[in-house]
Amino acid sequence: MVGFSIVLNLNIVHFQLLSFDIVCHFQLLCRSIIPFFFFVSHPFFNCFELPSTYIRSTETYLAESVIACFFDRDSGFRVFGSKYMENTENICTDLIPIQAKANTIPLPPPLPKSAITSHFQKSRVSSESLERGYSCVSTATRDLWDGLFDEAYGADVYIHTDHGGIVYAHAYILGMTSPVLKGMLKQSKKSGRKRSISIHGVPPDAVKVFIRYLYSCRYEKEEMEEFVLPLLMLSHVYVVPQLKRECERQLGRGLLTLENVVDVFQLALLCDAPRLSLLCHRMILKNFKAVSSSEAWQAMQQSHPVLEKELLGSVVDEDNRQKKRVKKMNERKIYLELFEAMETLVHICRDGCRTIGPHDKDFKVNQPPCKYAACKGLELLIRHFAGCKLRAPGGCTQCKRMWQLLELHSHLCADSNLCRVPLCRNFKDRSKKQGRKDEVKWKLLVKKILWTKGVARTPFFLTTETI
Prior knowledge:
- With 467 residues, the chain is mainly α.
- Among the domains are: 23-101, no CATH class; 328-361 and 369-466, TAZ domain (CREB-binding Protein, Chain A).
- The chain contains 20 helices and 7 strands.
- The chain has helices at residues 2-41, 52-70, 89-95, 98-101, 119-131, 139-150, 171-177, 179-187, 204-216, 221-237, 241-255, 261-270, 274-286, 288-292, 295-303, 305-350, 375-387, 397-412, 424-431, 436-453, and strands at 71-72, 76-79, 82-85, 157-160, 166-169, 190-191, 194-198.
- A hairpin with a 2-residue loop joins β6 (190-191) and β7 (194-198).
- The longest helix is centred in the C-terminal third of the chain and has 46 residues, at 305-350.
- 17% of the residues are buried.
C-alpha cells in the first residue's frame, strides 16, 4: 500500500511536470501565432483585399503546424519530440482539419509579375509614365493625392508667392519630401496651428506645379513645357533630386532650343547639372552663329562677360579641332590612294591589265573589269612616261609624279630581285646612298601608309617591323 502510494505520487509529480512543460511551450507558441491571427482579423488588413482562400489556407497551415508540434499520428502524443502518450489516434484525427487529413500543403500565393531589373527598362517605364503626366500607381490613389492638394483639406501651411498668390499645403508632406522646406517650417512663425513660408522669384503657377509634384510626383506635359526652367531651379534650391533629374531629361529630349540654350546653360552651371551643361555647351558650339545673334546671348554679354569669353575661347578651340580632324581625314585619304596606286602598279607590271602589261604576257580578249579603281589613270601615266621626251627627273610634271611612285614602291617592296616593277632595284640601291634626312622622310611615309591601311604583311610590301 505504501509502495503503491509512492508510485502514484511519482506519477502525479511527473504529470504535473509534463503539464507545466506543455503549458510553457504552448504559451511561447501562442505569443508568436496569436499576433498573426490578430493581424489577419484586424479591419485594417481588409484594405489589402487578399483572397479569402489564401487567408483560409494560411490559417489551416498554421493550425496544422500547431498540432504537428504536439501530436504524431504514428506514435501518439509528443511535445517537441518527447513521447508521453500512446493510442491517441482518435484525438488527433478529431483535432486535425480536413486538409491536414489529406496531407495536402496549401497552395502558395501567386508569384509577382516579372520584375523590371535593367536600368533601361526602369528608365523607359518611368519616362513613359511621367510623359503621360502621372506615376505608376492606381487611379484611386492618384485621385486621392490630387484631391488632397487641390482641395487643401486640413492644410496647415500657407506658401506666399509673387503677386500675392497663396498655395496651401501640408507640413508633414513638405517636410518629408524636401529637407530645405522642413527647415523653413521649423523656423517659420506659427499663427495658431498654421505656418507660413514664402517662395519668390518664380511664377506663382510654377510654385503650384512644384508643390503638386511633392504630393504625387506627377505633372502635366503642358506645365513641364512652360515651367521647365523654374522647376529646375526650385528642385535644386529645395533639394528634390527626382524632379531635377526629370527636368534635365525633358530638356535633353526636346525642350532645349536655340532660343533658350544660353539661359539653360547658365542655369545648369548654377544648379550643378553637369550633363545638362555639357549638352548646352555642345549645342552652342554647333550652332554658334544662330545662338550668338539671340537676345539671351546679348543679355549674357552684359551680365556674365567672363562666361562669354570662355564660350568664345571654346568656339576657337572647337574650330581648331575641326580643322585638325579635316586635315587627318584628308591625309588618310591620300595615304589610302597611295597604297592603292602601289597595288595597281604591281598588278600592271606583274599580271598586266587590258592593253598594258609586261612584254612576256599575252593579252586576253575577254577580260573581266579590273578591280583596281586607279588602274586606268595609272595606265595613262605609264604610257605618257614611256613616250615623254622630258621624263628626266625635274622635267615633266607627270613624269616627276611617276618617278615618285617608282621610288615609293622601292621602299615598300619586300624583294627587289623578284619584283617586276621597273627600276625597283636601282632605287633600292640609291636609297642606301641617301642622306639621313631623306631616309627618315621616306620611312615615315611608308609607316603612315601601312598604318592607315592596317597592313601587316603583303607579298610586295615591307612589314611595319622593318621600318
